[in-house]
Amino acid sequence: MNRQKINHKQLITVAKIANGLSWLFLVLTIFNGLNSILVFEPDPELRNGLIELIFGSLAGNYYTMRLILSAINQFLDVFIIFLVLRAISLALRMLVNIDSTYNTLKQGAEDE
Amino acid sequence: MSDSLYSQIHNNLNLRTTNELLEIWQKNNRYEWTDTAFEAIQKILVERGEEVPPQGPPILQSEEGDESDLSDNELSEETLAPTTFYDPVDALLLIDWLEWTGKAAILVAVLNGLWVAYPSILAFYKEFPSSDFPHLLKIIIEMGIFVFSGFLIYLFLRAIAYILKILMEFEFNSRGIQ
């Protein structure tokens, strides 16, 4: 019985860590992305794209399209990692819930 | 109430026999069963070609003598089955997000493929019809790699969504949610 409780505790801890990391990862990546655009000098292609995006027309500009696609790609990658971490956290919690319910029912049946 | 949850309740109830469903329907125990469950039962009975009989007076208290009345809102919350360790609404939301992100990954991969292959496509049309087969093959491979990678991400995310759905189903059944 003790072993079972310890396992649950460990699983919930891992689930909490995964959930916390997912949010931390998302927030840090967004901040890092904003920081690299606003504070640091981006690479020339990115800079040209950014200038064109802000001041120029979107249509037919190679760098602008590249910037947009690159940004979407990066955000998608980060978002996928975020979702996977959350899914891991949730799956662990569900498993603990299933096991916990099973133990309760088993205990009830044994008591009867 | 999300469609996913409704369909999950519907699917679970659909596993029961018609007699069981009729019994639940007529007994009309609103303490044990939620409004959504009754909606699903009615729909299943109609789908099975059964005549839906009138319901008995609603039972709003536990048969064991629990006297706490439950409002409609509380019943809805019960449907969403508050669990000790996770929130089913969060789970359904995450499953939706996984599925949509998978689709977005394919779209982005196609756009990337088009963008990367764009110079080759342009050259191909400029040189057409003198352009040779390897040139065309190059375009197809360039685009194919991106589309394939997008499809792999899509499958990966769908698989995770399915694993979560199955786990949720297990968890749902293990509680005997009605």
User: Could you give a short account of the major beta sheet of chain A?
Assistant: none
Radius of gyration of chain B, in angstroms, nearest whole number: 26 Å
Structural class of chain B: mainly alpha
Which secondary-structure class do the elements of chain A indicate?
mainly alpha
The most extensive interface between chains reads: A-B, 26 and 28 residues
Strand content of chain A: under 5%
| Spatial extent as radius of gyration of chain A | 23 Å
**Average pLDDT value of chain B?**
76
Question: What's the helix-strand series of chain A?
Answer: HHH
The number of strands of chain B is 0
**The biggest beta sheet of chain B, please?**
none
| End-to-end gap of chain B | 16 Å
Structure characterization notes:
The complex is a heterodimer of chains A (112) and B (178). Chain A is built from three helices and no strands. Chain A has helices spanning 2-38, 44-55, 62-111. The mean pLDDT of chain A is 76. Helices cover 71% and strands 0% of the residues of chain B. Chain B contains six helices and no strands. The longest helix of chain B is centred in the last third of the chain and has 43 residues, at 133-175. The radius of gyration of chain B is 26 Å and the shape is elongated. Chains A and B meet through helix 3 of A and helix 5 and helix 6 of B.
Brief account:
Chain A is mainly alpha-helical. Helices cover 88% and strands 0% of the residues of chain A.
